[in-house]
C-alpha cells in the first residue's frame, strides 16, 4: 500500500509530504484546486514520461518520492528478477533535473522506466474517467475473466511455451529462406566445390612450386657455377683442397714443438674436414643438376591452375582458397541435409504446439467455468448501483490461432435495459453506466487479485443520491482487501472514508501553490457541509454532514 507521498518543486507544489493509511481514503477539493496535480506527481514516480514543464522552479530539480509497503504481496521474485534490493517498505524516487534529464530509483538503485512501469502494475491501479474505455478492450476483458479463473500460473506457463514456439517458428522461417536461396545457387556452388576438391590444394604448395620452377628456369647458370666451384676446389695445382692438404702437412710437422703450433694445426684439420664435406656436396649437387622440360611444364601448369583459382575466387593465397572450399562445402552440405534439418525443426514445433494446446485448453476450461460466476457478481453489483436490468453475455470461442494469453476469442456483450439487445460495451453503455460497470469490475478484481492499492479519480461522475451511497459501500468492501483512495465530489462518498484529505490552493507572497492536508473530524464536517451547500454553509448542511459521517 501507498504509505507516504513526498513532492518537491512539481507544478504548483513547492513542498508536500502526506501520509496515507489503509482502508478507504477520500480526497476532495474544489475544481482546479490541484487534484490532477497529485495524480500527475504519482504517475511521474510510477514511470510516466516527464518534461521540464513539470518543474515549478526551473532552476531546481523536481523530486517525487513514494513509500510503499509490500510485505504481503510476494514481490521478492520480481525484485530478484530485475536485480533490485527488496525492502518491505520500498522507496520509489523520481527526479527531473533542470536540464530536462530524468532519473528513477528504487531503494536508491537506479532503474529504467520499463522496470518502473513493471513495478507499477504490481503496486497501484490508478483509475481515471477515460479508462472506462478499457472495458471494451479484449485484453482487459480477458484479465477480468482470468482473475476469477485463477489462471495466472497457467498463463505464465503458456507464455513461456508461446515464446518458445515463436522462436522455433522464426528459426524455421530462416532455415526455409536459407534453403530457397541455397537451392538457387546449389548447382553453381557444387561446380565450384568439385573444382576445388579436384585441385587438392595444400597450404604451402605454392611457395615450394615457385621455388622449384625458379631453379629449373636458371639451370644453366647453376650448372656452370657448380662446375667452376668444383674446379676451384679440386684442381691438382691450385685447388683449395690440395692447398689445404699441403698446409695441414706442413703444420703437422711442427706441431710437436709448441702448443701454439699444435692448436693451429688442429684448426686447419677442422677446416680440411669441412672443406671435404662441402666438396662432396658440390659434387653431388653437380651430378644431380639435370633440366627436365616435362617437370618444368608440369610445375608451370600447376601454378597456373592455382593462380587462376585464386583470381576466380578473389583471393591471393592457398590458405584463402581453402577457406572458400570450406564455405562451399558448408553450402553444399546445407542444401543436401536441409530437408532433414527442417524436418527436425518442424518436429520440435509440433511437440511444443502439443504441449501449448494442452495448457491453452486448461486456460479455456477455467475461463468457461468462471463465466457464470463473473456474470452473476457483476449483475448483482450493478443492480445495487441502480442498473437492475443490466445483463452480460460472455462467450468463449476456441480459435486455431495462438494468442499471447491462450487460444480463445472472447465475446463480451452488454445490455442495460430489460428486453434490450446485447452489444459492445462502448456502443450500448453510457458514460455513467460505464463508470458503474468499471467500479463493479474493480470490485470483482479486488477480491481475486493481490493488488495493494487502487485509486479512483471521480468514478462517481454522473451519479447521485442512493447510487452514490452504493458506490461508497462497494469502495468500503474493496478496502477490506486493499488500500482504496477515492477522489470525489460527492459528500455521500466523502463521508464513508476512514481518512479524509483536502486539496486546496493558497497564495504565498503572491504565488499560488497547491497543498494537501488530512482533515480532523471537525474539519471533515465543515468540508462535507460545504460539498452539500456551497461556501455559505447552513446549519442544516452541518447537521446533514454530521449525519453522513455517523
Automatic annotation (TrEMBL):
- As recorded in UniProt, coiled-coil segments are 335-362
Query: Which part of the chain is the RecF/RecN/SMC N-terminal domain?
Result: 1-507
Question: What SUPFAM superfamilies does the entry give?
Answer: P-loop containing nucleoside triphosphate hydrolases
Tell me a GO cellular component: bacterial nucleoid
- Whether DNA repair counts among this entry's keywords is yes
Question: Under the GO molecular function aspect, what terms does this record hold?
Answer: ATP binding
Biological processes, Gene Ontology terms = DNA recombination; DNA repair; SOS response
Mind telling me which Gene3D superfamilies this protein's record contains?
P-loop containing nucleotide triphosphate hydrolases (3.40.50.300)
Q: What's its job?
A: May be involved in recombinational repair of damaged DNA.
Family the entry assigns = Belongs to the RecN family.
What is the name listed in the Swiss-Prot or TrEMBL entry for this protein?
DNA repair protein RecN
The source organism is Polaribacter aquimarinus
Amino acid at each position: 500500500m501507498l504509505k507516504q507521498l513526498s513532492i518537491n518543486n512539481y507544478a504548483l507544489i513547492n513542498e508536500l509530504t502526506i501520509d496515507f493509511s489503509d482502508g478507504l481514503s477520500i480526497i476532495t477539493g474544489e475544481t482546479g484546486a490541484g487534484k490532477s496535480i497529485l495524480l500527475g506527481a504519482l504517475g511521474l514516480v510510477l514511470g510516466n514520461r516527464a518534461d521540464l514543464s513539470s518543474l515549478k522552479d526551473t532552476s531546481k530539480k523536481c523530486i517525487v518520492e513514494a513509500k510503499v509497503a509490500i510485505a504481503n504481496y510476494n514481490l521478492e521474485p520480481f525484485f530478484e528478477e530485475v536485480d533490485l534490493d527488496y525492502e518491505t517498505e520500498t522507496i520509489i524516487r523520481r527526479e527531473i533535473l533542470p536540464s530536462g534529464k530524468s532519473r528513477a530509483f528504487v531503494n536508491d538503485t537506479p532503474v529504467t522506466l520499463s522496470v518502473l512501469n513493471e513495478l507499477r502494475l504490481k503496486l497501484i491501479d490508478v483509475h481515471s474517467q477515460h479508462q472506462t474505455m478499457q472495458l471494451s478492450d479484449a485484453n482487459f476483458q480477458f484479465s477480468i475473466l482470468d482473475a476469477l479463473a485463477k489462471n495466472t500460473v497457467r498463463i505464465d506457463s503458456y507464455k513461456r511455451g508461446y515464446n518458445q514456439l515463436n522462436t522455433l517458428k522464426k528459426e524455421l522461417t530462416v532455415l526455409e529462406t536459407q534453403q530457397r536461396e541455397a537451392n538457387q545457387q546449389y548447382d553453381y556452388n557444387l561446380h565450384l566445390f568439385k573444382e576445388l576438391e579436384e585441385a587438392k590444394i595444400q597450404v604451402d604448395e605454392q611457395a615450394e612450386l615457385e621455388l622449384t620452377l625458379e631453379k629449373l628456369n636458371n639451370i644453366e647458370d647453376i650448372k656452370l657455377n657448380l662446375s667452376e666451384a668444383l674446379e676451384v676446389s679440386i684442381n691438382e695445382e691450385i685447388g683449395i683442397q690440395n692447398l689445404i692438404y699441403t698446409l695441414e702437412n706442413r703444420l703437422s710437422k711442427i706441431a710437436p714443438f709448441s702448443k701454439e703450433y699444435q692448436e693451429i694445426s688442429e684448426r686447419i684439420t677442422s677446416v680440411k674436414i669441412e672443406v671435404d664435406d662441402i666438396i662432396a656436396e658440390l659434387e653431388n649437387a653437380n651430378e644431380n643438376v639435370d633440366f627436365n622440360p616435362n617437370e618444368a611444364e608440369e610445375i608451370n601448369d600447376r601454378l597456373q591452375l592455382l593462380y587462376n583459382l585464386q583470381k576466380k575466387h578473389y583471393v591471393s593465397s592457398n590458405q584463402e582458397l581453402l577457406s572458400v572450399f570450406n564455405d562451399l562445402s558448408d553450402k553444399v552440405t546445407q542444401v543436401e541435409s536441409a530437408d532433414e534439418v527442417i524436418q527436425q525443426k518442424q518436429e520440435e514445433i509440433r511437440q511444443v504446439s502439443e504441449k501449448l494446446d494442452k495448457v491453452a485448453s486448461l486456460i479455456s476450461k477455467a475461463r468457461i467455468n468462471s463465466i457464470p460466476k463473473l456474470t452473476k457478481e457483476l449483475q448483482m453489483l450493478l443492480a445495487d448501483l441502480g442498473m437492475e436490468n443490466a445483463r452480460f453475455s460472455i462467450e468463449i470461442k476456441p480459435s486455431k490461432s495462438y494468442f499471447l494469453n491462450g487460444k480463445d476469442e472472447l465475446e463480451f456483450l452488454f445490455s442495460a435495459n430489460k428486453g434490450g439487445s446485447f452489444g459492445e460495451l462502448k456502443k450500448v453503455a453510457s458514460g455513467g453506466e460505464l463508470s458503474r460497470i468499471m467500479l463493479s469490475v474493480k470490485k470483482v478484481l479486488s477480491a481475486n487479485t493481490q493488488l495493494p492499492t487502487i485509486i479512483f479519480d471521480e468514478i462517481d461522475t454522473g451519479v447521485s443520491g442512493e447510487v452514490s451511497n452504493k458506490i461508497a459501500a462497494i469502495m468500503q468492501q474493496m478496502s477490506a482487501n486493499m488500500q482504496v483512495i477515492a477522489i470525489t465530489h460527492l459528500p455521500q462518498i466523502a463521508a464513508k472514508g476512514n481518512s479524509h484529505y483536502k486539496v486546496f490552493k493558497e497564495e504565498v507572497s503572491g504565488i499560488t501553490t497547491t497543498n494537501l492536508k488530512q482533515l480532523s473530524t471537525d474539519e471533515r464536517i465543515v468540508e462535507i457541509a460545504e460539498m452539500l451547500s456551497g461556501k455559505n454553509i447552513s446549519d442544516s448542511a452541518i447537521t446533514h454532514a454530521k449525519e453522513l459521517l455517523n
